[in-house]
Specification:
Elements (H helix, E strand, L loop, with lengths): L2 E7 L11 E5 L8 E6 L2 E7 L24 E2 L8 H13 L4 H7 L10 H16 L5 H4 L20 E2 L13 H11 L5 E7 L5 H14 L3 E5 L7 H10 L4 E5 L5 H12 L5 E4 L11 E7 L16 H11 L3 E6 L4 H9 L3 E5 L10 E6 L15 H13 L2 E5 L8 E4 L16 E3 L4 E3 L6 E3 L12 E4 L3 H11 L5 E4 L9 H10 L5 E4 L12 E6 L13 H13 L13 E6 L5 H7 L3 H15 L6 E9 L2 H15 L9 E2 L9 E2 L2 E10 L2 H19 L5 E8 L5
Length: 716
């Protein structure tokens, strides 16, 4: 007897194969079973899904059994992925308009593709044995048995799991009344519910996470903790590992070797891990006893995937909490306006931590009006004398300072003083950044790099000057202004080597650095106990950006940066945040001076409501890439005409196609078209009908390279 199965396979979006495909099996395999099936001339991994594809409205007549191909392999060693996990994947695929198999297979460890049933069974048996013997490290020690797995990386201990044999957890500290109320609210939730933990920087949000997780583990359930970027929050991982020494904590993020990722994923799926700490992909970690989801820094744009299925891990965490009847705790000092608005509507329960631990005050915010400084030709950003004096004062006191400038490199552009030539990228509509350390001009969009020319390519002038400042130039300027200071820089250029970030952070914590210069990598998530002064050197660029979310992101980033100062309550009273600005009367800075997120959020929400922007309306962005802007525009114009044919078009506004801020990257021209509706349901219905038409439309546009839909886009 043969059985007809629906199998989700990973097919590229352009194939138009969005749903599951039908196959035959000699066994009635349960949904969630991992299999290998033939697809064209290849054999690909797949997941048995809930119903045969013919049950769905595919628009095609069902195939007879004679036309179907049999399943090639069944991985019986792996327990099937559960109902709630499949529901989460199905929702993700439908909401973000991607193929079911594309989402399902892309969130599984790639090493699963290399294993047959025998090798997988041996891998699981070895893992269980290692855990029974008191640790999981041994499970990585002997992987070279032909199954394609790699050993753990001993040079990167932060990437490894942090499992520990059974023992006693560390004694937690006493909670403040606000913390106690927050923990009780989350742990008293009968089943599910979403909580927005709004706590100022240094108010002890992490302790709330820890004690809520302890309550979950004591009930025999698992906890999932999401962080925006694992490399920016090493202390959070360390605190969980230290608190839960008697529990198995595993991490899931891009810093893992393939072998480690598979091991940690298996520990989660088999119920062997108590806590999973990870970046956005970890929202899909299969956890059979999930009892709590924490999303730290829930406002962070890193939770939004920017390639493939462009999902928001924060939003999926909320949806998953409802599916699995588990409370979801969203934490931030500057919540996203979408989450803040939902809390105002009563959809999320708001919990407040209004003061810092130990009674420390928030840093005093001081504005430096750059309009009052003498103008220097060609210099757009300088260190004001007032700020240099403040840095010198902190140096004399033996305290640390942090200078924040969200632009790496020596200068944003190199220019000719004679003819005005600037170091543009020949492949992108962007400037190449001058990096003085290796004397290169480097495009941060496509990576194109060349040595700095000896003379101007246009007029031959030998006087080429840097224009503007990046962190590399700021570091040099600080060293000149304060020759006695020990200056360190943390950005993407200085932390490329393995372990470089941890090494530099350790030097800061050890007091071996007087002035730290960095990008947003150092502005959030770090508990620097000796820093008493933070300065934002050039924050104005985001004030007048075309993206309506730019002010929200700037306010959050500056609040986070300010929160690095005065985290030791004994020094908090003299901690300061300096802002060098050309617009000192801007309302954003006025709210920042008061540390008043509520008034800032109220003004931003009022602006968005009057302008018809999220969260009061719902957006999707159709992007097209082609060799010429005309080819991209032609596809989008035809797509708009197609969209207007559907009944839902009456509730949906399709804007004309426009180029994004960086219209050309790596010789590929980009255009985008905004789709807007006050009704999320109407927008989703239109997208579901529209996308199959776009697959067919692509064939008529030969100059088109690729297209994609981004639902709930972060940047416009």
């Amino acid at each position: 007897m043969t059985y007809r199965l629906a199998v989700a396979v990973e097919a590229p979006q352009y194939s138009g194969l969005g749903g599951a495909l039908d196959y035959l099996s000699e066994l009635p395999l349960p949904p969630g079973t991992l299999v290998r099936v033939p697809l064209g001339r290849r054999e690909v991994p797949g997941l048995v899904w809930d119903a045969p594809a013919e049950a769905a409205d595919t628009g095609r007549p069902p195939l007879s059994d004679d036309a179907l191909r049999p399943v090639a392999q069944v991985l019986t060693a792996l327990p099937p992925l559960g109902d709630a996990w499949r529901d989460l994947v199905a929702f993700t695929a439908a909401y973000y308009q991607r193929g079911l198999g594309e989402v399902a297979l892309s969130v599984l460890p790639p090493e699963l593709r290399k294993l047959d049933d025998t090798k997988l069974a041996r891998r699981i048996a070895r893992l269980r044995k290692a855990l029974e013997q008191g640790g999981a490290d041994a499970a990585d020690a002997d992987e070279d048995d032909g199954d394609g797995l790699e050993p753990a990386d001993p040079a990167n201990p932060a990437a490894a799991a942090t499992p520990h044999p059974a023992g006693h957890a560390n004694e937690p500290p006493a909670l403040t009344p606000d913390q106690q109320a927050a923990v009780e609210a989350v742990t008293a939730a009968a089943s599910d519910g979403t909580f927005l933990l709004h706590g100022v920087t240094g108010s002890g949000k992490t302790e709330v996470y820890l004690q809520a997780a302890a309550h979950t583990l004591a009930a025999g359930r698992q906890a999932l903790v999401l962080v925006p970027e694992i490399n920016l929050t090493p202390q959070l991982e360390a605190r969980f590992a230290e608190r839960f020494k008697g529990r198995r904590l595993v991490s899931l993020h891009s810093g893992l070797t393939p072998a480690q990722r598979l091991k940690h994923w298996l520990m989660a799926h088999l119920g062997l891990a108590d806590l999973v700490l990870g970046t956005r992909l970890a929202v899909f970690a299969p956890l059979p006893r999930l009892g709590l989801i924490v999303v730290d820094e829930e406002h962070d744009p890193s939770y939004k995937q920017q390639e493939g299925a462009r999902y928001s891990a924060r939003d999926l965490a909320v949806y998953r909490g409802r599916l699995e009847r588990a409370p979801v705790l969203l934490g931030s000092a500057t919540p996203s306006l979408e989450s803040w608005h939902r809390a105002q509507q009563g959809r999320y329960k708001r919990l407040d931590l209004a003061s810092r631990i130990g009674g420390g005050v928030l840093p005093q915010v001081r504005l430096v009006d750059m309009n009052l400084l003498p103008r220097t030709h060609g210099v757009t950003v300088a260190l004001s004398p007032q700020l240099v004096d403040a840095l010198r004062e902190r140096l004399a006191l033996g305290e640390q300072s942090l200078l924040f400038l969200n632009r790496r490199g020596y200068a944003p552009v190199l220019h000719c003083t004679e003819c005005g030539w600037k170091s543009g990228c020949p492949h992108c509509s962007a400037w190449r950044v001058f990096h003085r350390g290796d004397r290169t001009l480097r495009c941060h969009h496509c990576g194109f790099t060349e040595r700095v020319p000896r003379a101007c390519p246009q007029c031959g002038n030998l006087d080429l000057q840097p224009l503007g400042r990046g962190t590399e130039r700021l570091e040099e300027q600080i060293a000149q202004a304060l020759p006695a200071a020990r200056v360190a820089r943390i950005d993407a250029d200085t932390t490329r080597a393995a372990g470089a970030l941890q090494e530099r952070l350790a030097a800061v914590h050890a007091g071996e650095v007087d002035v730290l210069v960095g990008t947003q990598m150092v502005a959030k998530g770090h508990d620097f106990r000796r820093i008493t002064l933070v300065a934002a050197v050039n924050p104005d660029s985001a004030l007048f950006a075309s993206d309506f979310r730019a002010p929200e992101r700037l306010f959050a980033l500056l609040m986070q940066a300010a929160g690095r100062a005065g985290r030791d309550a004994r020094q908090a009273a003299r901690s300061q945040m300096w802002l060098q600005t050309w617009h000192p009367t801007h309302p954003l800075y006025a709210a920042l001076r008061r540390h008043d997120f509520e008034s800032f959020a109220a003004s931003q929400l009022a602006e968005r409501e009057s302008a018809g922007l999220p969260p009061y309306t719902h957006l999707a962005l159709l992007r097209a890439e082609a060799r010429t802007p005309e080819a991209a525009s032609a596809f989008l114009d035809d797509a708009a005409a197609c969209a207007n044919e559907f009944p839902e078009a009456e509730q949906v506004l399709v804007y004309p196609a426009v180029p994004p801020p960086v219209a050309r990257v790596a010789d590929v021209e980009r255009m985008q078209m905004l789709v807007e509706s006050p009704s999320r349901a109407a927008l989703q219905r239109l997208l579901a009908q529209w996308l199959p038409k776009l697959h067919a439309l692509r064939a008529a546009h030969k100059g088109l390279i690729r297209w994609a839909v981004d639902v709930d886009p972060l940047g416009i």
